[in-house]
Amino acid sequence: MKELIEKLKINRDLSDEEMIRLLTMPTGTDESLFPNTPEAGAHPVKRLPLNLQFTDDEELLFGTADEVRRAEYGTAVYVRGLIEFTNFCKNNCYYCGIRRDDAGLTRYRLSKEDILKCAEEGYGLGYRTFVLQGGEDLYYTDQRICDIVLSLHQKYPDCAITLSIGEKSRESYEKYFKAGAERYLLRHETASEEHYRILHPAELSLSHRKQCLFDLKDIGYQVGSGFMVGTLKQTPECILSDLRFLQELAPDMIGIGPYLTHHATPFKNCCNGSLAMTLRLISILRLMFPYALIPATTALGTIHPKGREYGLSAGANVVMPNLSPTKFRKLYSLYENKICTGELSKACADCIAARAASGGYHIVTDRGDVMGH
């Protein structure tokens, strides 16, 4: 694999056949790389030890990706203060814990005043990017979103405002941009039409989701996309289609994380996604997109106690500590056993700084704009 890894580093690309070889190389973690795809060799997931053993090829891939991120960004790890402001959602995605049909979930919404208070706390901790994330909640009209964004922008003009609120019309995206939102996160989830239909109800459309991403780029946003790792029936070919779509989109931010189950979804009997495959993909994405901002996600920390540390060492360079009121964090339950739901924001910030330092990285709390590409 050494030749393939070096070729990917130099060319930022591989042929389809070569990429599949890299995606399917053995792991040292005793995991199934495709745990919910029997035809790809799925087997029951075992509890992973605290300190994982990877193969020499995996270590080489991680080390090469880390070398590239250090060349682009040094040891900086950028912080985005996350505000999860609503768990209402009009959609019914089969994998999601806040899906419309989960009648047992207690729903909540934050007021503009609540959101501003969260931002104030984050600003005091040095954060200069705020991410407003929520389900596709029809209560938050364009007028309400623009009012929130404008208020944040006026109060914290030195901060970047990121939205992650799903599929909207181009007209809506333009309004948010004019109000002061500069970044938008919208995972495409899967670029395979066949796989998309497995994960989503008929009223949702992959072509529309892709169009939203291209609209966002055209308007001028810094755009983030990405996908889940290890979902039902995901194959190496599905992931290959994700990588090819990202090449077409050329996003500024790429967020991936292991699929994690939730008891109130149709996929409740599925297994969690693979940590090893997620780390492998972080490294592959770093080599394909050296400039990208790639988070070590909360999902990584949920699937393994050192997941975020492993993510940083594999090429990630962003973390997103939670600024939401602690009484609501458990209710934003996209998946089960989510970490950091009870910590105060200051404790969360200190914890993340320590985790970054343990791998030789340092926290940077400025805007952290993407490098040119």
TrEMBL record:
<dbReference type="GO" id="GO:0051539">
    <property type="term" value="F:4 iron, 4 sulfur cluster binding"/>
</dbReference>
<dbReference type="InterPro" id="IPR034422">
    <property type="entry name" value="HydE/PylB-like"/>
</dbReference>
<feature type="binding site">
    <location>
        <position position="164"/>
    </location>
    <ligand>
        <name>(3R)-3-methyl-D-ornithine</name>
    </ligand>
</feature>
<feature type="binding site">
    <location>
        <position position="209"/>
    </location>
    <ligand>
        <name>S-adenosyl-L-methionine</name>
    </ligand>
</feature>
<dbReference type="Pfam" id="PF04055">
    <property type="entry name" value="Radical_SAM"/>
</dbReference>
<feature type="binding site">
    <location>
        <position position="189"/>
    </location>
    <ligand>
        <name>S-adenosyl-L-methionine</name>
    </ligand>
</feature>
<feature type="domain" description="Radical SAM core">
    <location>
        <begin position="75"/>
        <end position="313"/>
    </location>
</feature>
<keyword id="KW-0411">Iron-sulfur</keyword>
<keyword id="KW-0949">S-adenosyl-L-methionine</keyword>
<dbReference type="InterPro" id="IPR006638">
    <property type="entry name" value="Elp3/MiaA/NifB-like_rSAM"/>
</dbReference>
<feature type="binding site">
    <location>
        <position position="89"/>
    </location>
    <ligand>
        <name>[4Fe-4S] cluster</name>
    </ligand>
</feature>
<protein>
    <submittedName>
        <fullName>[FeFe] hydrogenase H-cluster radical SAM maturase HydE</fullName>
    </submittedName>
</protein>
<dbReference type="GO" id="GO:0042364">
    <property type="term" value="P:water-soluble vitamin biosynthetic process"/>
</dbReference>
<dbReference type="GO" id="GO:0044272">
    <property type="term" value="P:sulfur compound biosynthetic process"/>
</dbReference>
<feature type="binding site">
    <location>
        <position position="96"/>
    </location>
    <ligand>
        <name>[4Fe-4S] cluster</name>
    </ligand>
</feature>
<keyword id="KW-0408">Iron</keyword>
<feature type="binding site">
    <location>
        <position position="260"/>
    </location>
    <ligand>
        <name>S-adenosyl-L-methionine</name>
    </ligand>
</feature>
<dbReference type="InterPro" id="IPR007197">
    <property type="entry name" value="rSAM"/>
</dbReference>
<keyword id="KW-0479">Metal-binding</keyword>
<dbReference type="GO" id="GO:0016740">
    <property type="term" value="F:transferase activity"/>
</dbReference>
<dbReference type="InterPro" id="IPR010722">
    <property type="entry name" value="BATS_dom"/>
</dbReference>
<dbReference type="GO" id="GO:0046872">
    <property type="term" value="F:metal ion binding"/>
</dbReference>
<dbReference type="InterPro" id="IPR013785">
    <property type="entry name" value="Aldolase_TIM"/>
</dbReference>
<keyword id="KW-0004">4Fe-4S</keyword>
<feature type="binding site">
    <location>
        <position position="93"/>
    </location>
    <ligand>
        <name>[4Fe-4S] cluster</name>
    </ligand>
</feature>
<dbReference type="InterPro" id="IPR024021">
    <property type="entry name" value="FeFe-hyd_HydE_rSAM"/>
</dbReference>
<dbReference type="InterPro" id="IPR058240">
    <property type="entry name" value="rSAM_sf"/>
</dbReference>
